[in-house]
Amino acid sequence: GDHAACLALAQAAATKFQGEGQQVYAAEALIIAARAHASMGQREIARAHLGHVAAMGESQWPPALLYKLHAVLAALARAEGDLDLTFAELQQAIEAVERLRNHLMIDLRVSFQEDKEILYEDMVEVCLARNDPALGLSYADRAKSRTLVELLDSRVQIRLRARSTSDKPLIDELLNLRARRDQLCRHRQNREGGVERGLSIGLDGDDQAQIAALERRIADLWDALLIRNADYAEDADLQGVGTRLLDLTLEEGVLLIEYFVLHGRLLVFLVQNGKVQSRQLDVELSQVRTLAERLHQHMRSVIRFPPARLPEMVRQAQFLLKKLYS
Question: Alpha helices of 275-325 — where are they, by DSSP H?
Fold first, then answer.
């Protein structure tokens, strides 16, 4: 885009918001200005803007602002070849994204996370550059697990059923509280006009107090349900994703293969005998998707052909499989 025009608008917005005392909006405008400077190769000026944002009260910033701040700082550190600083900034950006995600209503979480996946990909890349493929695998798995949880989490209300008649009042209250919490978030987002814009200035005091009270009661209800029946842990596990390192203990001789998409290209992790290796494959995800779709279409069409054509259909499937795995 036109970085100079973006810079001019961002600086004008920062000045206007500062004059009106809207510090969070001013900080967000300065971050945009810093990105524009960085894109123009003016890294020192970009750092000065970000330093000003931090000096304005970083400890008070909402997660939506913190992840943007640390993402730009990570990009600057990467451009300067400082892998350790890049790693530290990406850590803070990812932590902020995950805190922010927890305050979103369930049906907005998947779309919110989509454009944040670049942070996880950058982190995996930095871990590999620091010769730490095990940590890279942990972040790759964390990113993929989070996506899966979002898909499952949207079905919790359907899956969550009382395991005894006496549990039903607790289940009903739990679902009502979750609906009330999401309603508060939706009201704020609608009022401010959009998911990130609404959250970038944070919830007001009354909303925060209500949500905190609701979440405490929700946690108490989960505890009560788990005491009554440990099987509820299966549903409780869908509420979030752990951030602990992966347990890579496998039986001797067992090889674990895990794929990850790194900036549009396939990366494979190989885990065996407690050691992790990574290999970048010379193939783009778009190529794999095209071949996989062709294979799926072929398999769906098999039932339309007479049995005499089966050997030919098998050969075509084998051809596509060979292309996928070669």
Answer: 285-301, 310-325
Give the separation between CA 161 and CA 259, rounded to whole angstroms.
35
Name the amino acid, one letter, at 82.
D
Average pLDDT value for residue range 66-88: 94
Lowest model confidence (mean pLDDT) among 6-20, 31-45, 197-211, 219-233: 197-211
Residue-wise DSSP of 83-135: HHHHHHHHHHHHHHHHHHHTTS-HHHHHHHHHTTHHHHHHHHHHHHHTT-HHH
Neighbours of 125 (CB within 10 A): 20
Distance, CA of 252 to CA of 273 (rounded, Å)? 6
Query: Which pair of structure tokens corresponds to residue 255?
Result: 């090889």
Percentage, residues of the chain above pLDDT 90: 32
pTM above 0.85, yes or no: no
Best CA proximity match to 261, nearest among 144, 159, 105:
144
